[in-house]
Amino acid sequence: MRYLMLSKMQDTQPDEKLFAEMAAFIEEMTASGVLLATGGLDPAGFKIASRGDEVTVTDGPFTEAREAIGGFALVEVRSREEAIELGRRFRKIVGDGESLIHQVFG
């Protein structure tokens, strides 16, 4: 089962301890084959919308900074519970905030 784990942007800047803990967590997930991809996201982005034959492109940002998605991880796990556990471990490392987890189909 694949899950896309999204993390909302934080108001605080990460310190050296956080970088070290995240590096160890990412290394562990990579070594176990769970982590498929990870990255940070440009807070501005752009939106593509269509209506009939018309396609429009609008530059962002679209939401308040505290609502914007700051990064992602794509993981492959055996169960929903395993995805939740990875999310819990991530939140314990980065501290207060919010993450979203969606199962990826197909």
Name its key features.
Alpha-Beta Plaits; alpha+beta; globular; four-stranded antiparallel beta sheet; 106 residues
Instruction: Provide the number of structural domains.
Output: 1
Largest sheet: 4 strands, antiparallel
- Overall shape: it is globular
| Name of the level-1 CATH class | Alpha Beta
Order of helices and strands: EHEEEEHE
> What is CATH's topology name?
Alpha-Beta Plaits
Helix content: 25-40%
Architecture (CATH level 2) name: 2-Layer Sandwich
The helix/strand class is alpha+beta
How many distinct beta strands?
A: 6
List unreliable stretches of 5+ residues: none
Q: Report how far apart the termini are.
A: 10 Å
Rg over CA atoms: 16 Å
Give the overall average pLDDT.
Answer: 91
DSSP helix count? 2
Q: Strand order of the main beta sheet, please? A: 2-5-1-6
Write a brief caption for the model:
It contains two helices and six strands; from the N terminus they run E-H-E-E-E-E-H-E.
What do you see in this structure?
It is a single chain. The protein has 106 residues and is an alpha+beta fold. The protein has a single domain, classed as Dimeric alpha+beta barrel (Alpha-Beta Plaits, 2-Layer Sandwich), CATH 3.30.70.1060. The chain has two helices and six strands, in the order E-H-E-E-E-E-H-E. Strand 3 and strand 4 form a beta hairpin. It is globular and about 45 Å long. It holds the Pfam family YCII. InterPro entries: Dimeric_a/b-barrel, YCII.
